[in-house]
Write a structure and sequence with these properties.
With 275 residues, the protein is of the alpha/beta class. It contains twelve helices and eight strands. Helix 7 crosses helix 12. The longest helix has 22 residues. The relative contact order is 0.09. Bound molecules: NADP nicotinamide-adenine-dinucleotide phosphate.
């Protein structure tokens, strides 16, 4: 099946909430012509807001399926069924379907779209909002190299993109999908510790946040193993090793192993239709 009505480079966002808008703005900053971008929204006022802010075209889901050759589905997982039903009759198998929905396997889309439709599943994370996202990309059974490349190009406009087999999506969800939350949790707990030590909350927050930023940049840019970087601030009989002993005594490493395993298991459960 094919249709010639779609513009070769036109991308449509179906569902343009937090993740959709982050991707949309990233693509435009990366040089995409707004005339080649369409958005759909459930509420008309949201559509008008996006058109005014970004100069992109607004359309309906079914028109988007006809007009764009790349469709980015960024509605909540529970809204995906309704969206696919709407699209179904208007879809052709030459459209690339990219889903950002957590936990929905490519085979779920393939079973509901015209035979042979290329589907790519992506798990982004919230730092796409600041162009520091980590997006994990997996192709379905009809996705070819050109489709994966097209997807990578889109997600690289808001951070890093990595291809992984779909069987590893649940593990990636546990690491990078939920990952930012673990760091926020640590910052929150360490800020409390600062208050315990007598610092004003804002001071404690600023000290910890800048330390987190500095440590992250060093991890990314130095190429050093984290153990090496930690050793550089762990002098014999010093302050850091006293703190590390407490972390070990409280089983923090074991807690992290268990926590990420629990997140992976929950992701598997949700993907298989669990509540
Ligand atoms: N946020 C994250 O950290 C994160 C991370 C990884 C993956 N994801 C995935 O990204 C997807 C979007 O998440 P989000 O946080 O961006 O959600 P969101 O802010 O709620 O955005 C979803 C948008 O879709 C719109 N929508 C719903 N049904 C629609 C339909 N039939 N046609 C057109 N638009 C429709 C909603 O419109 P209304 O505003 O009018 O309801 C809303 O603006 C989810 O599937 C989620 O699993 C999110």
């Amino acid at each position: 099946m094919s249709s010639s009505a779609a513009h070769p480079q036109r991308i449509a966002f179906l569902g343009t909430g937090k993740i959709g808008e982050a991707l949309l703005s990233g693509l435009l900053r990366a040089g995409k012509d707004p005339a080649d971008v369409l958005v759909t929204a459930r509420r008309p006022e949201r559509a008008a807001e996006l058109a005014a802010k970004y100069g992109v075209g607004v359309t309906t889901n079914r028109e988007a399926a006809k007009l764009a050759d790349t469709l980015i589905l960024a509605v909540k997982p529970q809204d995906m069924g309704t969206l696919i039903e709407e699209l179904g009759p208007h879809m052709t198998s030459d459209r690339l379907v990219i889903s950002a929905a957590a936990g929905i396997p490519t085979r779920w889309f393939e079973a509901r779209l015209p035979a042979g439709t290329p589907v790519v599943r992506v798990m982004p994370n919230t730092p796409v909002l600041v162009d520091e996202g980590m997006s994990v990309i997996s192709g379905g059974s009809h996705a070819r190299e050109e489709h994966l490349l097209r997807t990578e190009e889109i997600f690289q406009s808001v951070g890093k993109a990595l291809r992984l087999p779909e069987a590893q999506q649940d593990a990636a969800t546990a690491l990078s999908g939920s990952g930012p939350a673990y760091f926020y949790y640590l910052v929150e707990a360490m800020t409390d510790a600062g208050i315990l030590l007598g610092l004003p909350r804002q001071v404690a927050h600023d000290l910890i946040v800048q330390s987190a930023i500095g440590a992250s940049v060093m991890l990314r840019d130095s190429g050093e193993h984290p153990v090496k970087l930690r050793e550089a601030v762990t002098s014999p009989a010093g302050t850091t090793i006293s703190a590390i002993r407490e972390l070990e005594n409280h089983g923090v490493r074991a807690a992290l192993l268990g926590a990420l395993e629990a997140a992976r298991n929950r992701s598997q459960e949700l993907a298989s239709g669990g509540k």
